[in-house]
Design a protein that fits this description.
The two termini are 30 Å apart. This protein is globular. The N terminus is likely disordered. Helix content is 44%, strand content 12%. It is an alpha+beta fold and 453 residues long. Strand 4 and strand 5 form a beta hairpin.
């Protein structure tokens, strides 16, 4: 979710436009009759994130096109921050550039409430073959608003610790199923060398980049974004301890230039043996264990490290949604159902590899013998962690929102991006922790004040 300083002003203006639209609309809107262009020809424009499973979907689009003559599917694959900026601008303005968008659990219920997305509830319920009840309940709940489902999960995830077993053995370290952050930091120092970082962690600015894992570290250290009165609690000892710990661990054992690293960069580092350990999205395990992965069979997995809490994993899903502004509603709905169906999961398994099947979305996926065998190293752990985390209270104190690595208010995207840049500056030794947290406190408080009215 790379949002650099030059984009912050744009992000803020988009957010204002979105809030204005939210105040003027309610409920889902169905746009167009779905007939597409003359003669039944339809071109679907899909905006999606530059992750491995989405690239697999693009590879397999010909299967959908063959089964639906006259329909063509164009993919626009972007880095996470670029995707959010483009999709937010398009959907909030009703411009209609995209027929299908990839959005997160954070946006889905808010955008559904605003009327920006097609309500899929009836379409999914009346299709028994789709079997909407097969979607994992926590994931389905996260992408619904007032009982209406506004997206379908392409994959769901929590976060876990991933480590190279050979590197760990060579350094004489071992991991329990529930390690602490101090144990991980100590192990990272022992595994660190000139050729291999002891640990790789996200440092790239963005609320979904750096703040994805860092927010969970803050929570397990006892911190939170707000108290129960929406007073910001960023500039506190708990935040300072967590953020200082994160930077110190990267300084002592992390990758060089961590502010240029997010999910894809750490994934590559682990595959290439340039990093020994990584704490991040559980979906990464399927890529590390893919048939073409050089570290297949060499990885160990454990729960996300903790400090004061019992768990510290996040809960997230990347979802496919249909903007209300589409002129190709019927074809778009048909595509998102195809790309999240039981049949699609089997298609990925047979065409690309069973380890590449999108995880954390459907219960039935974990009952497929071939998938159980291919994903034996990480699939049970993924389900275990996703079932154990508590999005209603992930930290030590109750919170006014549902969400682990984000605050489910419209203002958070902009606040999170700006605060992530401030923390990234501290990680890169361009500012102090007190300066970063002090400025972030001011930004967070303005957003908190908006919730009090």
């Amino acid at each position: 979710m790379l949002v650099l300083r030059s984009r912050l002003a744009v992000g803020a203006s988009v957010l204002v436009a979105g809030l204005t639209l939210a105040a003027c609309s309610s409920g889902a809107v169905s746009s167009g009759d779905g007939s597409g262009a003359a003669g039944g020809a339809v071109t679907l424009n899909v905006a999606t994130v530059n992750n491995g499973q989405m690239k697999d979907m693009e590879k397999l689009k010909s299967e959908f096109e063959s089964a639906n003559p006259g329909t063509k599917v164009n993919f626009q694959v972007m880095e996470e921050g670029d995707l959010r900026s483009a999709v937010t601008a398009d959907v909030a303005s009703g411009a209609g550039q995209y027929d299908i968008v990839t959005i997160g659990a954070y946006e889905t219920p808010q955008w559904g409430k605003n009327g920006w997305l097609v309500d899929l509830t009836s379409e999914l319920a009346k299709d028994s073959a789709y079997d909407v009840g097969d979607i994992l309940p926590p994931v389905r709940d996260a992408i619904s608003f007032e009982g209406k489902q506004f997206a379908v999960p392409f994959y769901g995830e929590s976060s876990i610790l991933m480590y190279n077993k050979d590197a760990a053995a060579a350094a004489g370290v071992s991991f329990s199923n529930n390690p602490t952050w101090q144990e991980v930091a100590d192990a990272a120092k022992k595994m660190n060398s000139a050729e291999q970082a002891g640990i790789c962690m996200r440092g790239k600015p963005g609320w979904g980049d750096l703040f994805g894992p860092l927010t969970t570290v803050v929570q397990t250290f006892g911190g939170a974004w707000y108290d129960d009165k929406w007073t910001a609690t960023v500039n506190t000892p708990e935040w300072k301890e967590a953020v200082t710990f994160y930077k110190t661990m990267l300084d002592e054992s992390g990758e060089k230039d961590p502010v240029s690293y997010s999910f894809n960069e750490c994934l590559t580092a682990l595959k290439e043996g340039k990093a020994a350990m990584w704490a991040d999205a559980s979906v990464a395990a399927s890529m590390l264990e893919a048939a073409d992965s050089p570290v297949k069979g060499k990885m160990g997995y454990a729960h996300m490290p903790v400090n004061k809490t019992k768990e510290s994993g996040w809960l997230w899903s990347w979802n496919l949604a249909v903007p209300s502004s589409t002129k190709n509603k019927d074809a778009a709905v048909k595509f998102v159902k195809w790309a999240t169906s039981k049949e699609y999961h089997k298609l990925v398994g047979t065409k690309i590899g069973w380890s590449n099947v999108p995880p954390g979305a459907r219960t039935s996926t974990y009952e497929i013998p071939e998938y159980k065998e291919a994903a034996a190293a990480y699939a049970p752990l993924t389900l275990e962690v996703m079932s154990a985390v508590n999005p209603k209270q992930p930290g030590l104190k109750p919170q006014n929102w549902v969400g682990i690595q984000y605050v489910s208010i419209p203002e958070y995207q902009d606040v999170g991006n700006q605060c992530a840049q401030l923390i990234a500056d501290y990680i890169a030794n361009r500012s102090s922790v007190d300066d970063a947290l002090g400025k972030c406190q001011e930004l967070a408080q303005k957003a908190g004040d908006a919730q009090k009215s």
